[in-house]
Design brief:
This protein is α/β, with parallel strands linked by helices and about 575 residues long. Helices cover about 25% and strands about 20% of the residues. The strands form 6 sheets. An 8-stranded parallel beta sheet has the order 12-11-8-4-3-2-14-13. The protein has a 5-stranded antiparallel beta sheet with strand order 15-16-17-21-19. A 3-stranded antiparallel beta sheet has the order 5-7-6, with no helix packed on it. The N and C termini lie close together (about 10 Å). The structure holds alpha-D-glucopyranose. Alpha-D-glucopyranose binds near residues 130, 230 and 351.
């Protein structure tokens, strides 16, 4: 006997919301989004990732051995911080040869092998180009300091002092002390924004430009898919060397005055260089990511270039300046970045800043908060860059005693400035000795959290931070609304719960994040946005909303697919 049932279809692969329909006309087709807008990037600090030869320092073979892990996690591109020959004063950010691999990390053949293996898994490689300075052991600098008339003298910034024993001006190094160092042999000072072992290149000299541009070509031909450009803000200095104004009274951790870096950072000449680098990158379909410390979106916009001809991905550090879980502050920052003239790039941790686990963790709900933060930066409109270890909830573990500090700024600024060792501790692979990072003595001690937070244990635990990252990354890769959709903040007056919609071609996702330590109820304005209900895709202890009402536990996160009920249909 046939039975006719009247049913309301609320299948969520559903029809378009009305706002969504209007949005489609301005949206790019999925295939028109370049690869770096779809990709998830993963930053590897090679010293600390995986050590293949037991010397206590990670290496390229170690990275190669973990490519399957990265693929499985959902990583599309790895950014390896400098692995070039270097005296390691700044752990690789003092490069002495741009076209080789430091023996502690392996050989060029190891790099080629890594590139081949990565390509097999469709993982791209991004290298870190230290553009502002070289090592003082680079052959260019050794020649430069050899005499006032040497071929490379003008490749760096040499000046006479103001008077006996006085540097040319008042600029201080960001790593402490005067930014000028006297070379007694030639009687002049050279300029270094960072350590004295990192002399600044003179980018006003076309030969410097040509040489560095060639370095990028050299690596592109070897298969790299782009560069993260280090410290781009500091490329140029005022040629007249005006003194910097004092920003406010007092002294910093190094005992230096607080200067406003008016004359030695963010000079407009940098844009010409970035345009030059971009032209070359475009020839290879490559991406340029920038270490761009900007004060606001206006400054950030400059780095995309007036004609979108500079950096594709200037990193948004404004996001990392929100150092507490505040729905209102994040909402404001996201809204601002969303108005940027180019594609946003979200970062919540890196090798220079305290990990997100500690910046946002409350000591009690840290894993829950790590998951909440994962949802945040992996579901926004823009490209996320994950820092190694974030996906397992790694904790910043700074040294307890000054004699254990490896990062020179930590020794110099102790105890106010403990340096960056804490966020660079070895990756935690398993519960074995040294967390499976090395069979030798690790260059930095492993964080004691490795017993509970490690890849092996978390792979088996369905509720771990790692499993959660995998789920969110999987969704991100397959859900067009998350990849390409518009961002619309909802419930904007809510001081505790951050909520937003992502909509692409009628497909919608709602993200709801309780940034407070008590349960919260929210009502989602679904109808007003053309949707009728939301289906749970991924959440931490949140049931699917009923009639748009959602109850979230403390620090609960919810990702839902938006549905439009179709008209009643007859089913036989
Ligand atoms: C960048 C790097 C940092 C390094 C500095 C000097 O800020 O991220 O680690 O010390 O540049 O190269």
């Amino acid at each position: 006997m046939k039975r006719t049932v009247l049913t309301m279809l609320s299948i969520c692969a559903c029809s378009m919301g009305f706002n969504a329909v209007a949005q489609t006309s301005t949206q790019l087709a999925a295939e028109d989004h370049p690869w770096w807008q779809r990709a998830v990037f993963y930053e590897i600090y090679p010293r600390s990732f995986a050590d293949s030869n037991g010397d206590g320092v990670g290496d390229l073979k170690g990275i190669a051995s973990k490519l399957d892990y990265l693929k499985n996690l959902g990583v599309d591109a790895i950014w390896i911080t400098p692995c070039f020959p270097s005296p390691q004063v700044d752990f690789g950010y003092d490069v002495s040869d741009y076209e080789n691999i430091d023996p502690m990390y392996g050989t060029l053949a190891d790099f080629d092998e890594l590139a081949r293996e990565a390509e097999k898994r469709s993982i791209r490689i991004i290298l870190d180009l230290v553009v502002n300075h070289t090592s003082d052991q680079h052959k260019w600098f050794l020649d430069s300091k050899s005499s006032r008339t040497s071929e490379h003298r003008d490749w760096y910034i040499w000046r006479d002092g103001r008077g006996p024993g006085q540097p040319p001006n008042n600029w201080v190094s960001t790593f402490g002390g005067s930014a000028w160092k006297l070379d007694p042999a030639t009687g002049q000072y050279y300029y270094h924004y960072f350590y004295p072992e990192q002399p600044d290149l003179n980018w006003r000299n076309p030969a410097v430009r040509g040489a560095m541009f060639d370095v990028t070509r050299w690596w592109y031909k070897r298969g790299v898919s782009g560069f993260r450009l280090d410290a781009v803000d500091t490329l140029f200095e005022d040629p007249e060397l005006h003194d910097n104004p004092i920003a406010h009274p007092g002294t910093n951790a190094f005992g230096d005055p607080f200067e406003e870096n008016k004359y030695n950072t963010k000079l407009p000449e940098v844009h010409d260089v970035l345009q030059g680098l971009r032209k070359i990158a475009d020839e290879y379909g490559a991406v340029l990511i920038g270490e761009t410390w900007t004060a606001d979106v206006h400054e950030l916009n400059h780095y995309y270039g007036a004609d979108h001809n500079e950096l594709q991905l200037p990193m948004d550090f404004l996001f990392t300046t929100v150092n507490k879980l505040s729905a209102a502050d994040f909402r404001k920052q996201i809204a601002e970045v969303n108005t940027a003239s180019g594609w946003p790039t979200f970062v919540i941790s890196n090798h220079d800043i305290v990990r997100s686990y500690d910046r946002y963790g409350d000591g009690e709900h840290n894993d829950q908060i790590a998951k909440l933060m994962a949802v945040l930066y992996l579901t926004l409109r823009g490209t996320p860059i994950l820092y190694y270890g974030e996906e397992i909830g790694m904790k910043t573990t700074p040294p307890a005693r000054v004699e254990d500090v490896k990062d020179p700024i930590g020794r110099k600024g102790w105890p106010k400035e403990k340096g960056r060792d804490g966020e660079r501790t070895p990756m935690q692979w398993d519960r074995s000795k040294n967390a499976g990072f090395t069979t030798g003595t690790p260059w930095l001690p492993v964080s004691p959290t490795y017993k509970t937070h490690n890849v092996a244990a978390e792979s088996k635990d369905p509720n771990s931070v790692l499993q959660f990252y995998k789920q969110v990354l999987k969704l991100r890769h397959t859900n067009q609304a998350l990849l390409y959709g518009t961002y619309t903040a909802i419930n904007e007056d809510d001081p505790n719960v951050l909520s937003y919609l992502r909509v692409y071609n009628g497909q919608g996702v709602v993200v709801v994040l309780n940034m407070s330590n008590v349960p919260r109820n929210v009502t989602l304005p679904l109808k007003a946005n053309g949707f009728s209900s939301a289906r749970n895709l991924i959440s931490t202890g949140v049931a699917a909303p009923r009639a748009g009402k959602l109850s979230l536990p403390a620090f609960g996160a919810f990702i839902g697919e938006l549905c439009v009920k179709s008209a009643p249909t007859a089913r036989q």
